[in-house]
Amino acid sequence: MPALQFMKWNAQLYLKLFVLAAVVLEYISADAPEIQKFSFQDDILEGKRVSVMCLVASKSKAVNFNWFKNGKEISSSERNLKIKNDNEFSVLILDPVNLQDNANYTCKATNIHGSDQHTAYLNVKAPPKWLETPKDIIATIGDSVIVTCDASGSPKPRIYWKKLSDKMNTTIFSTSKEQVSNESSHQLKLSSITYDAAGLYECIAENGVLNKIRSNFSVIVRELPEIEKFHFKENVKEGDFVSVVCLVKTGSQPITFLWYKNGNELIISNKKMSIENSPVISALILNSVTTENDGNYTCVAKNNFGSDRHSAVLKIKASPKWINQPNNIITVIGDAITASCIASGSPTPQITWRKIADSRTQSLHSLNSTYLNNSDSTIKISRVSYGDSGTFECTADNGIQPSIKANFTVTIRGRRV
Ligand SMILES: *[C@@H]1O[C@H](CO)[C@@H](O)[C@H](O)[C@H]1NC(C)=O
Ligand SMILES: *[C@@H]1O[C@H](CO)[C@@H](O)[C@H](O)[C@H]1NC(C)=O
Ligand SMILES: *[C@@H]1O[C@H](CO)[C@@H](O)[C@H](O)[C@H]1NC(C)=O
Ligand SMILES: *[C@@H]1O[C@H](CO)[C@@H](O)[C@H](O)[C@H]1NC(C)=O
Ligand SMILES: *[C@@H]1O[C@H](CO)[C@@H](O)[C@H](O)[C@H]1NC(C)=O
Ligand SMILES: *[C@@H]1O[C@H](CO)[C@@H](O)[C@H](O)[C@H]1NC(C)=O
Ligand SMILES: *[C@@H]1O[C@H](CO)[C@@H](O)[C@H](O)[C@H]1NC(C)=O
Ligand SMILES: *[C@@H]1O[C@H](CO)[C@@H](O)[C@H](O)[C@H]1NC(C)=O
């Protein structure tokens, strides 16, 4: 039975070889652990939960896991950190993840035969968020101001500036007037401000994560109103139409106007007077003027920053008009007589007297000062004689046509008895 014997012996040999091979195989496979490469997701947003798995891909025994953040060991005891271990893998969980978690994370797997490690970089992204936005700016012409807009975010947001004008929104680069301190800067410098700098501005922060954010602010240029000098035209006559314009040369809107006459606010009391206002002018209109309209007119222009005023005097020229005309006088020789001629007008009329010497010659004499007392509006004859009888004429004249004349007669009827 040698054949059977041989087979049995052979089988024993195979079994021994198999066991040996198994032992050798096991020795070979029980190698140092080998980690499968891992990485964090690309678009992780701040506040979310993030995890990464460190898997031992090789068949290895009794593996111990350690995690390192930028080379420093970390453990589950940390605030937002959890580590879940199993025989073949370890999971690192950050919940909620924030920008401070951005780091290199290393997983190290160790067993009795050795170790392996793999590092992945965590890059948490955060949309832009304002740290500082500008308030509205009120500046005076010539001022220089620096405006700051600052935003956090990851990656660091780019900040740029726009002026929102009526037609186009222009992005501000470095110009002589408006300077951005750096190409992408959180500071905008407006130097020696002019009226043109006024307007609505916007700063925008953008980093490619979610939406850009914008913040707007106004630059208000403070300008006091300044009235251009005005005056009434000369030689305004009664009945004329008179207007005067109070123009504000410079000044921030809104501007309000007020008119005063001789220090009192002008009340529009009738249709003969009106005031027409527009943003920069106020027109005072007087129809068919009389000397009642004479006065010192003041225009006051006011805005939020101050006021200006200008005054002009209106003096209406009026031809003479009688207030008192002389009556005919009948008297006796030796009596005293007086006669007055009083006229209004602007300027004040000059009164001149003449005597038509007698009805026969019709010649005219200017009356000399012996007839006149203090004022030229009255003549006085203290003792009349026959020679004083006749027709007298007084004329009121102020250069404004027509001048006016009045006659009166002095009639003498004998002597006092
Ligand atoms: C992470 O590792 C890379 C590659 O070694 C290195 O360039 C980078 O500076 C590291 N980052 C940090 C935050 O340590
Ligand atoms: C300018 O910007 C404002 C605010 O962002 C926007 O409402 C407006 O449509 C823009 N105008 C133009 C012409 O782009
Ligand atoms: C940009 O800003 C930095 C810091 O504010 C400053 O040191 C640097 O000079 C600026 N660069 C330019 C070109 O203005
Ligand atoms: C400016 O900002 C305010 C408040 O954020 C907003 O209501 C307004 O529409 C903005 N104006 C413009 C022109 O963008
Ligand atoms: C007119 O009024 C203004 C303001 O009350 C005053 O300053 C000015 O002297 C006045 N002018 C005249 C001629 O009275
Ligand atoms: C004024 O008139 C009277 C009467 O006509 C005359 O007597 C007198 O001399 C005159 N005086 C002068 C200064 O002309
Ligand atoms: C002039 O008038 C004043 C008062 O009106 C009077 O007192 C005076 O006597 C008069 N003079 C003459 C010369 O008549
Ligand atoms: C005044 O008397 C003269 C002479 O009689 C006459 O010519 C003239 O018209 C009279 N004037 C008036 C206003 O009555």
From TrEMBL:
<feature type="domain" description="Ig-like">
    <location>
        <begin position="33"/>
        <end position="123"/>
    </location>
</feature>
<dbReference type="GO" id="GO:0008046">
    <property type="term" value="F:axon guidance receptor activity"/>
</dbReference>
<protein>
    <submittedName>
        <fullName>Titin</fullName>
    </submittedName>
</protein>
<dbReference type="InterPro" id="IPR036179">
    <property type="entry name" value="Ig-like_dom_sf"/>
</dbReference>
<dbReference type="GO" id="GO:0007156">
    <property type="term" value="P:homophilic cell adhesion via plasma membrane adhesion molecules"/>
</dbReference>
<dbReference type="GO" id="GO:0030424">
    <property type="term" value="C:axon"/>
</dbReference>
<dbReference type="GO" id="GO:0050808">
    <property type="term" value="P:synapse organization"/>
</dbReference>
<dbReference type="InterPro" id="IPR013783">
    <property type="entry name" value="Ig-like_fold"/>
</dbReference>
<dbReference type="InterPro" id="IPR003598">
    <property type="entry name" value="Ig_sub2"/>
</dbReference>
<dbReference type="GO" id="GO:0043025">
    <property type="term" value="C:neuronal cell body"/>
</dbReference>
<dbReference type="Pfam" id="PF13927">
    <property type="entry name" value="Ig_3"/>
</dbReference>
<keyword id="KW-0393">Immunoglobulin domain</keyword>
<feature type="domain" description="Ig-like">
    <location>
        <begin position="320"/>
        <end position="411"/>
    </location>
</feature>
<feature type="domain" description="Ig-like">
    <location>
        <begin position="128"/>
        <end position="220"/>
    </location>
</feature>
<keyword id="KW-1015">Disulfide bond</keyword>
<keyword id="KW-0732">Signal</keyword>
<dbReference type="Pfam" id="PF07679">
    <property type="entry name" value="I-set"/>
</dbReference>
<dbReference type="InterPro" id="IPR013098">
    <property type="entry name" value="Ig_I-set"/>
</dbReference>
<feature type="signal peptide">
    <location>
        <begin position="1"/>
        <end position="30"/>
    </location>
</feature>
<dbReference type="InterPro" id="IPR007110">
    <property type="entry name" value="Ig-like_dom"/>
</dbReference>
<dbReference type="InterPro" id="IPR050958">
    <property type="entry name" value="Cell_Adh-Cytoskel_Orgn"/>
</dbReference>
<dbReference type="GO" id="GO:0005886">
    <property type="term" value="C:plasma membrane"/>
</dbReference>
<dbReference type="InterPro" id="IPR003599">
    <property type="entry name" value="Ig_sub"/>
</dbReference>
<feature type="domain" description="Ig-like">
    <location>
        <begin position="225"/>
        <end position="315"/>
    </location>
</feature>
